[in-house]
Amino acid sequence: xxxxxxxxxxxxxxxxxxxxxxxxxxxxxxxxxxxxxxxxxxxxxxxxxxxxxxxxxxxxxxxxxxxxxxxxxxxxxxxxxxxxxxxxxxxxxxxxxxxxxxxxxxxxxxxxxxxxxxxxxxxxxxxxxxxxxxxxxxxxxxxxxxxxxxxxxxxxxxxxxxxxxxxxxxxxxxxxxxxxxxxxxxxxxxxxxx
Length: 194
Description:
about 190 residues, alpha+beta, Rieske Iron-sulfur Protein, 3 helices, 9 strands, three-stranded antiparallel beta sheet, about 25% helix
């Protein structure tokens, strides 16, 4: 009987050791799998905020930078451009920017923190094309056109604040990303100032 008891104890001991070794092995096998599911440093950096020097952007000029794989436009608007925005509302689908495609601080007719600087994601809200910057009047784009952004793919038009014209394929205004001015010459795109 003592041989059966020793054999049973030995069997229980070996079974428990096998379970522990198997459990430790499973944990070590799961570590690479779980670490592959977390984003890489390159991916984390792609979504990180970017800092842009705006000191060289002349009034009326336009600069394109990339954030999260999308073009971001920075337009230094002139006084004349701002006047056109003030007087241009009857042809727009969402002149007060009521739709939620901009942070609350950009929910105004200029769609910006500082009226002279416009910051937009340069992707048409219709099918994701990239509209062209057409700052001046152009009779080919219609008599109501006073400047803005034109998507040649499907004909959507946006004013100098990125607000969509009525009866366009694009359903919404161009998106305003989160941003803030770190200084008079530095713009940070990708986060709100907290």
